[in-house]
Amino acid sequence: MTAYDVVVVGLGAMGSSAARHLAARGLRVLGLEQFTPAHDRGSSHGDSRMIRQAYLEHPSYVPLLQHAYPLWEELGERAHQRLLTETGGVMIGRPDSGAVAGSRRSAEQWGLPHELLDATGLRERFPTFSPGDDEVALYEERAGFVRPEATVRAQVEAATEDGADLRFGEPVTGWRATGSGVRVSTAAESFDAGHLVLAPGAWAPRLLDLPIALTVERQILHWYAPTGGTEPFAVGRHPVWIWEDPDGDEVYGFPALPGETEVKVAFFRRPVPADPDHVDRVVHPEEVAEMDVTMRRKLPALAQHTRAVTCLYTLTPDSHFVLGRHPEYPQVSVAAGFSGHGFKFTPLVGEILADLATEGTTPHDVSLFDPARPALRR
Ligand SMILES: Cc1cc2nc3c(=O)[nH]c(=O)nc-3n(C[C@H](O)[C@H](O)[C@H](O)COP(=O)(O)OP(=O)(O)OC[C@H]3O[C@@H](n4cnc5c(N)ncnc54)[C@H](O)[C@@H]3O)c2cc1C
């Protein structure tokens, strides 16, 4: 039996990032993934993910994002691909909405460049939007999008080049602590290692062995072909955007990606509980109709729905991540519960997991994500 320094379970966004950082540090890494690289059954598919710094969720994320941006550049250079595209972003809503007030709070607290636009200013600058007269927008230049499938592939490739042993089609059936190390099992084999990184995405409730409340939800990504062509939605002209209604409902979207004729939009939350192994992958007419009605009101050029796919969220009760050492086993690190907003942190999460596995601690402030925090308790 080969001995490894670290076993990584789950090679989606966070696990493949951890494997890459660990391999780059010269560790003997085994990665185990139940499906193929960059598959579409978890949380890391659908062409684009939003990235932004004026973080409406909490100002504590801002320094982490400031660390993540250069890591995105570095990964893109290594992969000879553009993984991060800065397009500018608008957060739209009433002045006291979470989207506007929350992003403003982060921007002001951290001195991030931003502009406030009233409804007229927003309509003039970005004519695709139809805001109400009482709505405003915070514009942030450094917002944009990253590419999920290309990111996972780039991380898998870099880790493999640096010597990691990454195996696909290998579901992990269980793990246990063995003195100071771990033993990880698949149907056919067992592996011993000094450290275990658990990054199982929507399968976390089964694999973490922690008394924490995680909810898996099915979400939908929709694509529309803009009436009158994609030009007004092109990268360089159109920002990424989040739009919050007075009842707290949020919808968001992207420019047309280079070479594409469609535009992607989604509701941030539609709480449909899901079992990751039995997800209803069919998008139903009433789900399309709900988005049609919303687009007619907010971006009327998006009238022609073309396709939709499902994707999974793993939510924590406070919507903050679970990232740190396993409270019971210091030789195990966990990365889960990214609550629908984790992708933009991918290269940094891998660095943090590599810090935890090698040093036992990380210089990044991850106290908000403590796996033992009371807010997570079931
Ligand atoms: C519709 C949608 C929109 C989103 N939009 C954004 C956005 O705009 N910006 C943003 O920052 N974030 C966004 N997110 C969230 C972000 O994509 C996720 O937080 C991130 O992808 C989670 O990565 P992960 O590595 O935890 O999960 P995954 O990438 O799903 O990886 C987990 C992996 O573990 C594997 N695995 C699980 N159990 C086992 C096992 N027993 N054995 C072997 N392998 C196993 C799975 O097969 C999977 O490959 C969005 C998510 C969705 C679904």
What's the short story on this structure?
The protein is α+β, with helices and mostly antiparallel strands and 378 residues long.
Q: What does this protein look like?
A:
With 378 residues, the chain is of the alpha+beta class. It contains 8 helices and 20 strands. The strands form 3 sheets. Strands 5, 6, 7, 13, 14, 15, 16, 17 and 18 form a 9-stranded mixed beta sheet that branches. Strands 1, 2, 9, 10, 11, 12, 19 and 20 form an 8-stranded mixed beta sheet that branches. The protein has a 3-stranded antiparallel beta sheet with strand order 3-8-4. Strand 11 and strand 12 form a beta hairpin. Helix 1 packs parallel to helix 5 and helix 1 crosses helix 8. The protein starts with a strand and ends in a 19-residue tail after the last helix. Flavin-adenine dinucleotide binds next to helix 1, strand 2, strand 3, strand 13 and strand 18. The site of flavin-adenine dinucleotide has 35 residues, from helix 1, strand 2, strand 3, strand 13 and strand 18.
Order of helices and strands: EHEEHEEHEHEEHEEEEHEEEEEHEEEH
Count, helices: 8
Using the CA coordinates, give the radius of gyration. Answer: 21 Å
Biggest beta sheet summary: 9 strands, mixed
Summarize the helices and strands and which ones pair or pack.
Layout (H helix, E strand, L loop, with lengths): L2 E7 L3 H12 L4 E5 L15 E3 L10 H18 L4 E3 L2 E5 L4 H13 L4 E3 L1 H7 L10 E5 L3 E3 L1 H14 L3 E4 L3 E7 L2 E6 L3 E9 L5 H4 L7 E11 L14 E5 L5 E4 L9 E5 L4 E2 L11 H14 L5 E12 L6 E4 L6 E5 L9 H14 L19
Parallel strand pairs: 1-2, 1-12, 2-9, 5-14, 12-20
Antiparallel strand pairs: 3-8, 4-8, 5-7, 6-7, 10-11, 11-12, 13-16, 13-17, 13-18, 14-15, 15-16, 19-20
Helix pairs in contact: 1-5, 1-8, 2-5
The structure holds flavin-adenine dinucleotide (FAD).
Flavin-adenine dinucleotide (FAD) binds next to helix 1, strand 2, strand 3, strand 13 and strand 18.
